[in-house]
Design goal:
Number of strands: 0
Shape: globular
Oligomer: single chain
Number of helices: 9
Distance between the termini: 80 Å
Length: 160
């Protein structure tokens, strides 16, 4: 990622992930942010992360590679980490969850709430769940969470 493009997006985005955010991530979460930021930058021509934060992700992934057991680890090209790039990734093979997460992170960056992606609050977690599509399994869970509706009671006036 070039420094010029990072500066360009700072004016259009509300907030970008920075080195402080990346330093607080666990090793496994680095894979998710590497894949989503690479997809955003190389396929969508957008970013939600400063260049220095992306470089830090690549450095940490190289250093912590053997301790990472993430289901999407096999999508990461280790030679790309040396060059701090995700250009050679096979984006057409990325799971839909990575692509969807990318759009959600871009949305959070535009609204100035990208920091909540790193350290979500209870309110953010609930909003993410509420924004999720209503599947039959989720519909049952929501119905079980909500209290049953009480029948309406009509007051009968006995005396005038």
């Amino acid at each position: 990622m070039s420094q010029a493009s990072g500066l360009h997006w700072k004016t259009e985005m509300g907030e970008l992930l920075n080195e402080r955010h990346i330093a607080s991530l666990s090793s496994n979460r680095l894979i998710s942010f590497y894949l989503t930021s690479s997809y955003a930058y190389y396929e969508l021509n957008e970013t939600f992360m400063e260049d220095s934060a992306y470089d830090l992700i690549c450095q940490r992934l190289k250093a912590e590679w053997h301790s990472i057991n993430h289901p999407h680890k096999h999508f990461v090209d280790k030679t790309g980490l040396d060059a701090t790039t995700g250009f050679a990734l096979k984006f057409h093979k990325l799971p839909l969850i990575v692509r969807g997460a990318t759009f959600r992170l871009l949305e959070l960056a535009r609204s100035g709430k990208i920091g909540e992606a790193v350290h979500p609050t209870k309110v953010t977690r609930r909003a993410l769940v509420e924004d999720a599509p209503m599947t039959p399994k989720r519909r049952r869970a929501v119905l079980l969470e909500s209290p049953p509706e009480q029948p309406k009671r009509h007051r009968v006036q006995l005396f005038d």
